[in-house]
Amino acid sequence: MAEESPILAVEGVSLRFGGVRALTDVSFTVRPGEIFSIIGPNGAGKTSMVNCVSGRYRPTEGVVRFGGQDITRLGPNRRAGLGIGRTFQNLALFGHMSVLDNIMVGRHHLLKAGFLRGMLYWIGGAQTEELAHRREVEEIIDFLEIQPVRKAIAGTLPYGLRKRVELARAIALKPRLILLDEPMAGMNLEEKEDMARFITDLNEEWGMTVLMIEHDMGVVMDISHRVMVLDFGRKIAEGSPEAVMAHPEVKRAYLGKDLAEPEPAAA
Q1: Domain named ABC transporter: which ranges (predicted)?
Q2: pLDDT at position 83
Q3: What pLDDT, on the 0 to 100 scale, is given for residue 152?
Q4: Domain 1-83+175-257 - what CATH class?
């Protein structure tokens, strides 16, 4: 049986900002239904790579394909409409809005009711459509266990809960591919365990393909199917978590020394 076509294919992507090369000739694929993690030291180009996938940055060279379609020149909104959702390393919630309203914002690409139907809200189809969307949002709220804060103002919540709300908003888009930029940054151990469980359930029960940046190597090893390592904007390894973490180039990048050199003999 032929291998299933990748949902995401990044082909020879390079990214420059003036004279600074953020990415150099990076290629990889993400298969449908997997959790694919990108790791690397600070400044390795991880977020730049995700921004090239989401449409926030346009590569200087190379091609990004989603579902076989070339999306390299499409903006973030067009990509979201195709089924690419994302969270951000730095929270991007509407702090003055309720949790429920923040999540509803994630549904805007799916709304079909236009301006005239909106004016005729009570006699047209817009009311029925909004109710259907609210039911799906409530399902997401239940899934992420944030029922007690559903009416709270997002900006007043503890950091860990705000990270869940941002994930909920990304899920609300019903993406085929969800991009998670350090979803566990700044969390305590219990919050990390909860987030890892939610990501695994999204993948296994909801069928979402996940592309994740994460610094917590324990989480990466536990939940990823495959891992790619970037260092100074270049890919230095890709494969199973176990194979990648045993790779000498990865050890060198993280430990900052040439592991091929023998340790000096004791005096």
Answers
A1: 8-257
A2: 93
A3: 94
A4: alpha beta
Identify the CA nearest to 176 among candidates 4, 3, 7, 1: 7
CA terminus-to-terminus distance, the chain = 60
For the chain, give every domain's residue range: 1-83+175-257, 92-174
d(C-alpha 161, C-alpha 144), whole Å? 10
Residue 101, pLDDT score: 87
Is residue 52 within 8 A of residue 15, CB to CB? The reply is yes
- 249 and 40 in contact (C-beta within 8 Å)? no
CB 214 within 8 Å of CB 39: yes
Q: In what order do the strands lie in the sheet with 177-181?
A: 84-86, 177-181, 209-213, 35-39, 226-231, 234-239
**Pairing mode, strands 8-17 and 20-30:** antiparallel
**Residue 116 is which amino acid?**
L
Q: Which residues of the chain have pLDDT under 70?
A: 1-3, 89-92, 108-133, 255-267
Q: Listing from the earlier edge strand, what are the strands of the sheet with 61-66?
A: 20-30, 8-17, 61-66, 69-70
Look up the pTM and report it.
Answer: 0.85
Q: Two tokens at 186?
A: 């700044």
Q: In one letter, which amino acid is 136?
A: E
- Are 109 and 81 in contact by the 8 Å Cβ rule? The answer is yes
**With left for phi above 0 and alpha for psi between -120 and 50, is residue 223 left, alpha or beta?**
alpha
